[in-house]
Amino acid sequence: MMEQTLKEAEEKPVKKAPRKKGKKSAKKRGRPRGSQNKNRREVELKPYLIRIQTMLTKLLALLGVSLKVSYCVMDGAFGNNYALQMVRQCSLHLISKLRADAALYFPYTGPQKKRVARKKYGAKLDYAHIPDQYLKETTIVDGIQTNIYQMTMWHKLFPDLLNVVIISKINLKTQARAHVVLFSSDLELAYDQLIDYYRLRFQLEFNFRDAKQFWGLEDFMNVNQTPVYNAANLAMFMVNLSQLLLAHFRPTCPTFSVNDLKAYFRGRKYVTETLKLLPQRPEPIFIDQIFAQIAQIGSINAS
Fold it and tell me: Does residue 26 lie within any of the structural domains?
């Protein structure tokens, strides 16, 4: 589902007036006196999150009960509590990415004192020295060692525990390190599935490429709201439909492409219109032979 949106004036960031040099701010440091803890599950969604939630609700209503969806995959820009609560309000689990320097804490497992608040934050995670007990998989390819860790962690900006998967890469020659921090609100999701689901996000880029290249997403000239909505969604619908149709031809021609598919149906259209002009309709066998010959004109891989 696609929808055109216009950025509203209240969404634009408000520029703060520059502070004069030598003048100290009158605002005191620390927490204001009398302030109370806020429930992080009850957040005020920003306009762009409300739009996404509205579209998500419509999409789930269209799917109905025939296709059960459990996860919503979003990129690192949505790796925050606001996006997580927005997705959870739709009865889905979020899969996203945290900042590489996100402050994560192990759950506290030590003794608890009776007369004070219970501790829930344990030691802070050191990305360079992750305990081996959380290591799930190790591979070495072309001198690059990849370690995958999974653990249940606290983040102080999230109200609930997070299912965290860390993909750490080490160059064995230079000892250079890099890592990616993925997370999900589903604590039962396995690390390999979480990684596979997040990788599906990149399929969106291929969908947009196909919609622009083959189905007119880049070429339509509509300017009004309803025609723009119809043209954009029709282009993305044709991406899905073409993949379904390609599956019919791939078993006999593995290299059958979208261009071959368009040539095939264009040829069938020409034959159908030509047959309407004949005074007498040919035999069905002859018609099938004509379809087979004309449908190959303009194709690249079909034979």
Answer: no
Is 303 a domain residue? Answer: no
Question: In three state form, how does the secondary structure of 63-86 look?
Answer: HCCCCCCCEEECCHHHCCHHHHHH
Give pTM, 2 decimals: 0.78
In a domain, 219, yes or no: yes
Instruction: Select from 188, 177, 218, 182 the least CA-distant residue to 200.
Output: 182
Residue 12 inside a domain? The answer is no
- Tell me the residue range of the domain where 59 lies: 40-108+120-205
| Predicted confidence (pLDDT) per residue in 96-152, tens digit | 999 999 999 999 988 888 877 788 899 999 999 999 999 999 999 999 999 999 999
**Contact present, 204 and 217 (Cβ < 8 Å):** no
Q: Where are the beta strands (DSSP E) in 132-239?
A: 135-141, 144-155, 162-171, 177-184
Distance separating alpha carbons of residues 179 and 99, to the nearest angstrom = 10
